[in-house]
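New to this. Comment on this protein:
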Amino acid sequence: MIKVIMMMAMTADGLIAKHERHLPTEWTSPADKKLFQKISKKAGAVIMGDKTFFTFPAPLPGRLNVVFTLEKNPAPRPGVLWVSGEPKKVLDRLAKMGFKQVILGGGATINSLFLDAGLVAEIYLTIEPKIFGRGLSLFARPRDCSLSLISSRKLSKSTLFLKYRVLPEKKSYAQAKKTDQKS
């Protein structure tokens, strides 16, 4: 199975954008942009929804842009694989294409779709020194999910980067702590 890493930038109040057309390039730090480019190019593919995709001026270069859409016959674009349906089937298709891991790059609906299906292995979060007050959350609907911190580091003076492992549904925080102490 392909490893799915959700990678998002968010404000200190947990938001990923002020509204659906708010570009991440308008508010994320240069350090976050550089890190996203490095990690996503290494993975080779970024999965996103079409609302997220259309916030970019062009497909992300050097990676396959895997874009979920409800459109019946989207126009072919170089570097873009238009998909729909079940996330697991899309991952199976990407595995047949030779991918070992993918970056899940949002938005909130696609993040929820993959997390609800139990397909997200890790979550990478860049916490930017911003507060929007209101806007879009990481997920489109409420979700109770336990995480275990893998690592944390500063990307710049005021920007943090956190890596979390998504814990299986039945694994409690105490069980995760014991597992982490053994590793």
In short: The chain is about 25% helix and 30% strand. Residues 3-182 form a domain with the Dihydrofolate Reductase, subunit A fold (CATH 3.40.430.10). The longest strand covers residues 3-11. The CA atoms of residues 31 and 156 lie 7 Å apart.
